[in-house]
Amino acid sequence: MRARQLKTKWAEGIDSEHVLGEYPRPLLQRESYVNLNGYWDYGITREGEKLKSYDGRILVPFSPEAWLSGVRRQLKPRESLWYHRTLPEEIYAVTEGRWLLHFGAVDQYAVVSVNGKVVKRHLGGYLPFSVDVTDFLQVGKNELTVQVRDYSDTFYYSRGKQKLKRGGMFYTAQSGIWQTVWMEKVPDTYIKELTVTPLYDESAFLVKVKMAETRLPSGSLVNQGAWEPGSKVAVTISSKDTQPFQIEGHAGQDIRIPISDMRSWSPENPFLYDIEVTAGRDHAKSYAAMRKISVEKDGGGIPRIFLNNQPYFQCGVLDQGYWPEGLYTPPCDEAMVYDIRAMKELGFNMIRKHVKLEPQRWYYHCDRIGMLVWQDMVNGGRRYQSWYVTYLATAMEYFHLRMQDSMLGLLGRRDEKGRRQFVSELRETIHILYNHPSVVTWVIFNEGWGQFHGEAVTQIAREADKSRLIDQASGWFDQGGGDVRSIHDYFFPLHIKAEKRVTALTEFGGYSLSIQGHHMYRKVYGYRIYRKKSELTRGYRQWIEREILPNIEKGLSAIVYTQLSDVEEETNGILTYDREVLKLKAGTVRGLNEKMKQRMLF
Questions:
Q1: DSSP at 485
Q2: Which H or E run includes 144?
Q3: What's the confidence (pLDDT) of residue 221?
Q4: pTM above 0.90, yes or no
Q5: What is the tens place of the pLDDT at every residue in 381-418?
Q6: What are phi and psi of 546, to 5 degrees?
Q7: Alpha-carbon distance 521 to 167, whole Å?
Q8: Could you tell me the sign of the dihedral formed by the alpha carbons of 233, 224, 131, 254, in that order?
Q9: How large is the angle between the packed helices 586-599 and 533-543, nearest 10 degrees?
Q10: Who's near 218: CB < 8 A, 6+ residues apart?
């Protein structure tokens, strides 16, 4: 079915010379920054064919399937997508320092070459990766080439909601480079990572500075994770209303920094501390927040989510992170900010980022604006058996019968390599997002999509991060582990019974309203169809008043409404896909969110 091309208000204002030009990694920021977004050459070849000539130009970082890319062509599983550009003149072979090349995300498998030599191979369409290209550069002209393969939903790789035959709750598959490509120059010995853990009850930060491994001119390696025993780093903490406080420590070791007159971070007061790190000739800036998330019992003995040692009801909204003109890629920084602020103005204090990772700046905006994040791991696996993971699972959930996740064939997880890949990406996701105070919960599996060995995988996640909550299985296929009893309920009366874990309604609603001129397809998808804004608002209000408010005192501690915006056929958003129309009455939504928050404090 032919689609109407929708666009947000930001689409027409994009400057091809300055596409998503903001610094892409706010948690470790240097002065050196060369943005490589913009027009690149591109070509598509069949499997096994060599590229003879380029087909045209593509606007990076928009996928070829996206309207903003200028290509608007689907990459097939048996095809290769080729990118090429000449690096800016300022990037050339140097005698001192190193040039690092960064990719925010490339979907799914990328081979990166500089001047015809392969410098990096990377598998995984959602995670950033980097490579030191110094030794491959030359004086004068330097060529960068990227070859991409994307198997989409035909293989067990992570894919989120992408589907080659999109429809209903699954959306247009996209491929290739879809986040910012950039470079920076660093000293021979440089800061590779900065890990910051808030010790809330001790009014202190625990900081660890990891230095990069570098090759000396003699060819010997120095492991800079330890970075020459005895070498020092200096960490400075400051804020807008406190004097800078500096403490020295050793690279690769924990540095404890006490904070006097500590300020807490919360959605109501997203207070951030500035951090500066100096190590040898390298200097980088970051930020951190004093925030604690935990599960504690309230006065009645019911487990609740506590934020900063106080019970805190989380009113959330499901966010797919899709854009009509950019698919996975937002048109600009301002567009990301708009979505977060629009939800906050409606009284929501949490976003569940659904089976997708965003650019680092999205989490940065949640940190500074004040929005809690439940982060899904990106699902993968081979074809899921719908009769098993959807229909039977829904019925079993209604009767409160627990389904085991050991039927790996029905869950699309027979491939051992696929299971190992998921675990590797889970660890890397936690590692990449660890320092963001807004992220408070890891959601490991969703509705059985590619689920396997839930208890074992939960323990792996717990070992990687003991400071956050874990939702082991959002929806059905709960194995009894993690911190959250996670319920999806679109059709049945809600019955909450307190248990040893927190109880959360992590998906509900899905109410559909199609606004003329603001939807893509004639066919629409949703769990209940409404014709008017007033009717949709009334249905939304009635469900919350009938099902949610009475269950809060019984143990319900968080909710997630489906969803933030329409996506293609799925017209169940609070906003239309083009972000032009708010489909629910704002005052009603704000009022109900406030009632839910207050009901927690009975």
A1: E
A2: strand 143-149
A3: 45
A4: yes
A5: 999 888 898 888 888 877 778 888 989 999 999 999 99
A6: -85, -40
A7: 10
A8: negative
A9: 10
A10: none
